[in-house]
Amino acid sequence: MNSVAVVLDQIVAPVPGGIGRYALNLIRALTERPDLPRTFTGFVPLVSGDTVRRLHSLIPLLGYIDVSPLPRRVLARAWRIGMAVPRRNLTYSPSLLSPLAPRGQHIVTIHDTIPWTHPETLTRRGAAWHRAMGERAARFADVIVVPTEAVAVRLSDFLSFGDRIRVIGGAPSTDLVIPADSPARRARRELPDNFVAFVGTLEPRKGLEQLITALATVDALSLVVIGPRGWGGVDVATLVERSGIAPSRVHALGRLDDADLAAVLSASRALVVPSIEEGFGLPVLEAMSLGVPVIHSTAAALVEVAGGAALSVDVHGPRGKMALAEALTGLSDDELRRDLVSRGHARSALFSWDASAAKLAALIDELS
Prior knowledge:
With about 375 residues, the chain is of the alpha/beta class. It is built from 15 helices and 13 strands.
């Protein structure tokens, strides 16, 4: 029976974000497929025994998990220059942290082109590392997975992959189910009745400042911010003070588990995704699956994923903040909201982790 090594780093990363969510759901769906004549083993940087046990509970059908003696940052630097590469016949990496080398076969994932198109929205070290690993992927990867056609097209401006690119998108998490005690969960957090939601890691490219500034011009509508701190010093309290909006109208909840996320998001008037750029935009589909209207920026991947089932706003254009404020105001139109909910349900139903896992399994079969 053939074995595939799966890099699990993103699932246990300090800030897993959307890539960690993508990795967990896709790998779990892959290991649950009954038709694969192979086993899957995990590989992680140096982590605790508790973390390994948690990974086994999250992906119960995964085989053993090989723990590197190198911590995450050291391993990332080593793999950037092709050192400390484990000997595996076939490796799947749901990110660019991949043991790319001449030996073995490699399926590697590039989630977006931000390190090339908007490096200023990343740390200097992070942007340089991603570009360097992209170059290694161009040299050594057998297949490059991207989440959208938008990323595939844009990536070709910077790296030459020929016919090795494949698109495997995400889907709403099967764990995202509205709990029966949702009202109590919201009440414990003292949330307002009329609010829009933002879901994402707090970092410069996510457009949170534009959203708060636009919201300051809209009456009787609050904002709930869901997501962990990332890099770049994006601080909700500072953005609120700078915008002039009443602090009582903005509620920062940090990272939520799936039950709390579903409880809060399902009660929102809309999810707003004002990002400068995205590779996929998983919260778009997850909100749609919960019956929540979506407003998103004109980032190409968001437009592709939403498929016309949401309101697209040129948030970062010349009149972006005004256009976003108009879209927020338009949420008072019940007919529009019902239409967005209906189209969103239909759109999100087109995506599933089983379908994504089937595509990944086919790639593995090609290389086996």
